[in-house]
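Hi R.,

Here are the chain sequences for the assembly we discussed:
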Amino acid sequence: MSDPRSNARAILQEWGVKNFRVIDKEAISEITLGASILATGGGGDPEIGLLWTYKVIDEGKEILMIDPMDVPDDVQTASTACLGAAIVLTEKPPSGEVLNLAMERLAQYLGRSIQATIPLECGGVNSPVSYAAAGELGVPVVDVDGMNRAFPELQMTSWVTHGVHCSPTVSVDSRMNVTVIDTGGDDVLAETLARRVAMAYGGISWIATYPLTGKQVKETSILYSQSIAWAAGRAVMRARREHLDPIEELLKSLKKERNVDGFRVFSGKIVDINRDFGSETNKGFTLGSIVMEGIDDYKDQTATLDFQNEWLNLRVNGDILCLPPDLIAILDSETGEPIRTDIMKYGYRGTIVLIPAHERMRTPKGIEMFGPRHFGYDLDYVAVEGLNKHRR
Amino acid sequence: MGVGGMSKTTRLRVGFDVGGTFTDGVLMKGREVLAKAKSLTTQDVTGGIVEALDCVLDGSAVDLSEISMVSLGTTHTTNALIERRNLNKVGIFRLGAPATTAIPPLTGWPNDLKETIGGQELAYIIRGGSEYDGRDIVPLDKKAIEEACKAMKGKVDSIAITGVFSPIIADHEEQAEEVVRSVLGNEIHVTLSHRIATISLLERENSTILNAAVITVMQRAVQSLKAAAADRGIDAPLFIVQNDGSVMSADYAVDYPIFTVASGPAASVRGSVYLSGIEDGVVVDIGGTSTDVAYIVKGFPRESSITVNIGGVKTNIRCPDLLSIALGGGTIVKHNGDDVTGLGPESVGYNLVRLGTSFGGPLMTVHDTAVALGKLDTRLDVFKTDFVTAPDKIAALSRPLVENAWEAIRKTIEETIDKMKTTGEAVPAIFIGGGALVVPKTGISGVSEVVSPDHFEVGGAIGTTIAEIGAYAEGVVDLDIEDRKEAIAEVTEHAKDNAEAAGAIRSTVEVIDVEEIPFTYMPGKREKIRIRVKGQVL
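And here is the predicted structure of the full complex:
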């Protein structure tokens, strides 16, 4: 049982599951690219998550992804992720032991072993991290997540809006410090505590969280979120190889996988970045706003975006074009590579794409928990399709 | 400054641009080209430059003491990194354990490059580094550095030190340098990451290691070029073009060679803009072995966003966004009967005069295609040969093959330009470089006009002589007290003062980068503002 390779397969055999996908380096690079596009400007440096997962694969540990409908109702799953300010992670990658430590301690606290990982969000770090953890622990990854995008706070998931909770959550750092957060049904308090712990650790923490049963996974997750990200990443990589327009290919992929229309609304360059400095340690987020000046078809237009780890809203010439939880991606026009809030610089050029949030994120409870008012805007949520009607 | 007018207008400058095949040299008096020359690029690069220098001096009767500036766009560092030649063995210190160990230094590097610089066994992750708020992650483990230095003594030429959050607080890097020097001595070159690039540990570490790997290459180049200039009685400062197209003093470049990886292409872009007067469009620099395409906006090359790949390694060095393809005058046309099956990537390079059909050789090249179609009717003096010495061999080439090859070349150029464009509208294209003569200039869709200005064949070398001085200024502000916009404006003025002091015309100085780095470990909302500017040289 110490060979993780036999372990993940042994679990699937025990469940009678014959269908799974082996995640190799190409697969994880496609999934991670797609996830970092869906990450809405956040989600962290994909390089770190990718290199980490490559290392796990190189060590001969097998990573298997399964259909959520194949997960037995009564098994224990959990999510593992990095929580904190993306810019801190970009500068301070973890030790190799943090994921094992967090999951191990969560299992200990629960008194049950964890038999699958469920990715928390779509992001350059937290997507591959779920796969790296699965490889390390010798358990499968389930084709779901809690957002189908990235969001700045722990409780902003379809899991919470559908009645399950993130507690208990275990938070660790590279110095092997361990904190257990158990707030029962108060997910906002769990987030507040987890954020404080991350700040005390130096800006980021590594968590094991959302201990869900198989039944809860099926009933409350964004189903097939991994496949959606994978298809998006594959489409953009193909566009690069075949010199197609990566943005067009991305929009086609989303139409095919989710039957939604995304919108290409702006191209420009960043002319001002106003970071709320200190927010990383005062508030535990990367905060601020940027201004972009239009180029080409968008000449003489000005776009402004606020961010809290992720892009929050978009205004072009004062008109609101997107509000949370709908997705905003600024993509390099030639490569489709996302421009993230933690690494953007003066002068960067990109095209802005808007994507409707997944329907499980748009419930009334979802709008209450992560709609515009939650982020301090005195505005009612209007879906991105409504705000961009004229662009159809 | 006295009566500077006279000496300024007569001021002479010598400029060089090193390409894969040829090294170009020019002697300039203001805007006037007094002499130009091409020599073959040598393996050591420096030999070709010295030869080009002799050629331009030879053809002109100038007073060498009047030469006020020698400038260079060079591929010394890039070639060394791409060819894995003459690289230093690098002792690598990362200050960050127990964090950061999931991804050790050199992860993701090409194996051959990793081995050439000494590999993983010279890389150490030391306990240390800072948190975002300035606290230590853990205290710096100086003992471990000392022991590592003892172990690597005699095995390393250069040291790279990268500390977590050093762009915010550099203390641990500086302390580590002291320990290194106490064991390995003062002669050893040490590169500290906070002087190379900004936040993003892995990319900054990669950039720092690459810089350490090419220190000796750049030191030797600068030494021998200075000696060559002095030997010939030239007493003028040596400048090297850096990645953003501005110039830096050679004495500075020896510590920061990584800032010259795009030196040659950056010089070409500046030369193209200067010679053509076109500020928006594409620059197509065609050499003997390759073509670089850059997109220019307001006279400057568009920068790469995200990461820049150097020799297969991801870095966060700021560089122009260049697309290089293996197409030049010496590129071999592969064919099967009359069908062209491929262009290159192999090039005969400077062996064109032995191997090309035009010179009686066995291979058909891009050059031979142009000759066969009668596109090369004028002799350029800088090439010390006629374009064809074996017209009978050219006449014997199959006409359909020649036409197919010409079409293949046209299509390749068209596609490459198209990839670099961000607009659907047709834009002007500036064709420069020695190979500009041998490629099609008409029928390229997406291009409004093709311009090959006078002296196009030495455009890069001219670009080095008009390159601007780059300068920067830093200021620390407390945003609780001061207005951010006013603070930026104030630092910008300081940067402009510095540029002016370094020889730039104030009215031409413009901002190229605004960087803000927070000091969250200090009370208030303090940040460092760093503004880079550049302006034209007087």
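Chain A has a mean pLDDT of 92. The first strand of chain A starts at residue 21 and ends at 22.

Let me know if anything looks off.

Best,
T.
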